[in-house]
Known about the structure:
The structure holds two protein chains of two kinds.
Chain A: E1 13-16, E2 45-48, E3 53-54, H1 60-76, E4 80-82, H2 101-105, E5 111-120, E6 123-132, E7 137-138, E8 143-148, H3 152-168, E9 176-184, E10 191-198, E11 205-206, E12 214-219, E13 225-230, E14 237-242, E15 248-250, E16 258-264, E17 270-277, E18 280-287, E19 293-295, E20 303-308, E21 314-319, E22 326-331, E23 338-339, E24 346-352, E25 358-365, E26 368-375, E27 382-383, E28 390-395, E29 401-407, E30 415-421, E31 428-430, E32 435-444
Chain B: H1 3-14, H2 52-60, E1 62-64, H3 74-89, E2 93-100, H4 107-127, E3 135-141, H5 152-158, E4 160-167
Parallel strand pairs in B: 2-3
Antiparallel strand pairs in B: 1-4, 2-4
Helix pairs in contact in B: 3-4
Amino acid sequence: MRHLALPILPALCVALAGLLAPATPAVAQSGPLRIEITEGVIEPMPIAVPNFVPEGGEAGQLASQISRVVVDDLVGTGLFREIPPSAHIGAITSFASPVQYADWKAINADALITGAVSVQGGQVNVKFRLHDVFAGQEMGAGLQFTGTEAGWRRMAHKVADAVYSRITGEDPYFDSRTVFVAEDGPKDARRKRLAIMDYDGANVQYLTDSASIVLAPRFSPTGDRVLYTSYETGRPQIYVLDVASVGRRVLETGQGDMAFSPRFAPDGRTVIYSLTQGANTDIYRMDLATGQSVRLTDAASIETAPSFSPDGSRIVFESDRSGTQQLYIMPATGGEAQRISFGEGRYGTPVWSPRGDLVAFTKQSKGRFHIGVMRTDGSGERLLTASFLDEGPSWSPNGRVIMFARETQGEQGASSLYTVDITGRNLKRVATPSGASDPAWGPLQ
Amino acid sequence: MTYLAKAILLSATLGLGLAGCSSMSPNRFDNVTNLNGAAGAGSGTASDPASPAYFQQSVGDRVLFAVDQSTLSPEARLTLDQQARWLLANGDYQARIEGHADEQGTREYNLALGARRANSVKEYLLTQGVPDYRLSTISYGKERPIEICSEEACYAKNRRAVTVLQAGAGL
């Protein structure tokens, strides 16, 4: 099998531009500039992001590209809307000069982001400040990020992450990556290969070729490894892939016809997965260091798609022991399981949210597919999407957004990735170079 | 040699006899019998009752299932009775039973469901006297449809278990 090497990610260093500012990025302060994310309809906050000031001749294009990515990140949440540069009255020509707030108040900008970009010896430095226009003051300290020129998008995501966190009070998620299955070809001759990209679809790189079917990659908690299923040996087996080196090894799951649906435990040292023997599929748990495995379920039915709670104490999974696919929760050591899904239809692919309070799932009802969420006791079920075939939710690192795959109907049917806010708003397609399925959203980098 | 390379070789060996066997659409995944390079004289024509082509076309290499089910219909049992007779008469072949699902279902569940279907066929062939060591199973879930429309007419053909012959029984 041929592998493509991945460039090493730039080491990003964070430094403070302000004097004597706190050593960590400031989070939202109390004050007027605040978006509370609720389920009601919200009016996107108007923001102005004048092109970051290039400091030095080489930085001009990069400054403009970084400003655009910052805007795309923020506007992409559906929580902000950009006041385009063509509508600006004021201009930011120097990062150090005081801001004329009246110029930005006049165009009804609630927030103003100013920044500067410099390039020196292949290193890029990005500085920014967030301004509360109506309060006429900065919101939080200015920050700067330094990294390699190739990693400029990460610095833009870091800026947007800081702005998003300060204004919403939520944890950030823009500086993250997604591993997924890239798809080519018609439905009856589809080729699949593993791919990795930034959360927004940029920087796609392929981790395997398409000689064998590959399915359902899952990131480790730190994003350094990926579990996936491949037919490389002729039958489905689980592989552990090192993201930096693209080296991989098969998980020795011992007896059984096929192993699939793997997922890491929050400690990154344990894997849960399904093993099929004959007609029966059950859930197992393996210690990666010792290779020792333990069977967690023991029923004649299909038990699959296990996912740990963030504290590692429980596992949510799907089973058809009642006659149809439903969701259950059991202790991480196995034992008695509680059914949590009771609505009409079938429920599968449960994934525990990083905050621990919700389970995302795929629901099949009346010939339609939905991505939905429910509380871990099964209450508060909400369906976020509906289509011919929506499947396989994956949580953003902050638990605010869900990425999933949507397959279109018919002979030309193809799969794409979408994101939706857990409020059900802001359904968006993630641009990928080819078809895409089975997304797994990784941690904040 | 890769599976695909073998498939191409085999298609060349068997000629056009296989191409029209199962559907109108180009049947890219299923119309291949993996002979593992052991295709002997006479194995390439459907008129030879001992040939894989005969097994595929005249005996019937596949059985279909109802939605979300892995139980064998009376019609499926008739097909499998003939498959068992053929396998018992032609001891040089092993059989790999490939279980499949239609696209209406989640990926993981369909993998497990395909395994159930393949296993139903295997268990039945065992009861008909085909020895265990000649039978193996694999599931492709919804990964390998042969029909691509999103209607029941296509789904019905995709919910299948296909008995694929492999040369070299009892190795």
